[in-house]
C-alpha cells in the first residue's frame, strides 16, 4: 500500500524561493505542495484553510514574520508541523522560532534531498534540533521559573518512559511500537506529560527531558 502524501504549504516572501522549493518538492512522490503564502499573516490564513501536514516557514518577512505566525497557529491549535526554512544562522533568530512552536529548522542552502528528509521527519513527529541550539535552549531554560523538577514527580513511570523516547526523537508511532501500545494511548500520554510539566509542545518536552536526565 502506498504511503499517504504529505501536504505542504510554503510561506516565504521571495517568489523565487517559493518557486524553487515547489519545483523540487513536486518531483517527490510522497510530498505535495498544496499552497503558498508571501507573508506570515497569509501563511496563517492558508494553513487554516488548507490544513496541510507541514508548513515550510521563513522567519524574516515583512509585516507578520514567521515567529508571530507560529504563535498565531499555536493559539488556533492548528495541528500542522512547522519547519523553519531560514538563511539566518544566529541562535537569537532560531531559538524564538523553536520556542514559538516550530518542530525544527533547516537553512535555505540545505541539500534538496535533506530538505525532503526533514519534511518527512517532522511529519513523522520528530524534532529537528542542531546540538548547539539545543544546548543554548537548555542554558536559557536554567534561568526560567522554578519548580520544574517538582512537576516531574507527577509523571507516572509509563509517562517517564514515553518522555524518554520523545527526547530520543521518536515519533508517536515509534513509541507505540517500542512500548507495545496503541498510537492513541501514546497521544494520551504525551498530552498528559505536556499538561503536568506545563509545556507547550514536543520540542519543549524533549528539552525538558534532556535537562533533567531523562532519555537522550
Kindly name the structural category: alpha/beta
> Are there runs of 5+ residues with pLDDT below 50, and where?
143-147
Termini separation comes to 33 Å
Strand order in the sheet with the most strands: 2-1-3-4-5
> What summary fits the major beta sheet?
5 strands, parallel
Helical coverage, percent range: 40-55%
Q: Which strand-content bin applies to the residues?
A: 5-15%
State the oligomer.
single chain
Total E-strand runs: 5
Helical stretch tally: 11
Which word captures the global form? globular
Over the alpha carbons, how many angstroms does the gyration radius reach? 17 Å
Element-level helix/strand string: EHEHEHEHEHHHHHHH
Mean pLDDT: 85
Quick structural summary:
This protein is of the alpha/beta class and 216 residues long. It has helices spanning 15-25, 40-50, 66-75, 91-99, 112-123, 131-141, 148-152, 157-167, 172-179, 183-197, 202-211; strands at 6-11, 31-37, 54-57, 81-86, 104-107. α2 (40-50) runs parallel beside α3 (66-75).
Amino acid at each position: 500500500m502506498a504511503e499517504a502524501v504529505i501536504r505542504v504549504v510554503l510561506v516565504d516572501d521571495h517568489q523565487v524561493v517559493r518557486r524553487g522549493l515547489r519545483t523540487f518538492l513536486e518531483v517527490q512522490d510522497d510530498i505535495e505542495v498544496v499552497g503558498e503564502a508571501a507573508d506570515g499573516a497569509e501563511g496563517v490564513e492558508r494553513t487554516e484553510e488548507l490544513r496541510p501536514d507541514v508548513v515550510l516557514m521563513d522567519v524574516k518577512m515583512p509585516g507578520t514574520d514567521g515567529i508571530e505566525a507560529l504563535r498565531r497557529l499555536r493559539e488556533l491549535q492548528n495541528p500542522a508541523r512547522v519547519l523553519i526554512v531560514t538563511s539566518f544562522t544566529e541562535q537569537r533568530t532560531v531559538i524564538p522560532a523553536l520556542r514559538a512552536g516550530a518542530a525544527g529548522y533547516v537553512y535555505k542552502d540545505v541539500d534538496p534531498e535533506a530538505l525532503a528528509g526533514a519534511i518527512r521527519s517532522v511529519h513523522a513527529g520528530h524534532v529537528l534540533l542542531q546540538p548547539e541550539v539545543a544546548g543554548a535552549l537548555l542554558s536559557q531554560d536554567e534561568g526560567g521559573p522554578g519548580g520544574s523538577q517538582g512537576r516531574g514527580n507527577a509523571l507516572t513511570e509509563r509517562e517517564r518512559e514515553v518522555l524518554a523516547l520523545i527526547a530520543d526523537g521518536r515519533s508517536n508511532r515509534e513509541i507505540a511500537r517500542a512500548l507495545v501500545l496503541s498510537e492513541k494511548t501514546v497521544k494520551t500520554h504525551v498530552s498528559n506529560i505536556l499538561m503536568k510539566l506545563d509545556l507547550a509542545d514536543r520540542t519543549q518536552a524533549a528539552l525538558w527531558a534532556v535537562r533533567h536526565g531523562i532519555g537522550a
